[in-house]
Hints:
mainly alpha; two-stranded antiparallel ribbon; 2 strands; globular
Amino acid sequence: xxxxxxxxxxxxxEPFMDIIESNGYDSFFPTQATRTTYPxxxxxxxxxxxxxxxxxxxxxxxPSDGKDKKLATLEADQLHQLFDITLKALQAAxxxxxxxxxxxxxxxxxxxxxxxxxxxxxxTMSPDKKDFLKNWINTTDFVNMSNSDKRDTYQKLxxxx
Length: 161
């Protein structure tokens, strides 16, 4: 994918995957295609936080809610801003998971949803928010969860504070 001289793969997907792999979560990608779809869907929280003027029901960081058409309308500087906020939130989520010694279940949704939480709450991570997020990760089970339920779960997570 290349838009407006921005190479999504080189400038975003590779750094995203580098963070994932350096933290030992590369096994969370069952197919080669998911190594692209999950990073692209992880842009959803940042897109909504930075640019959304209307609330959309389909805005969870899951592959079926990808915003490919909306991303193509952004200017290069906006895309770089979006990549930056998303990669910073991913790094913060990885550090949180490591610092809190959280054992993930093997689902990317725990990582991408936590990333979304950091997009919205990362600047103000109080002890209460940290406890909430840790408990949420430890108790949320995505196995057999429909996309509609994932969307509802994500909305509750990011709007919990």
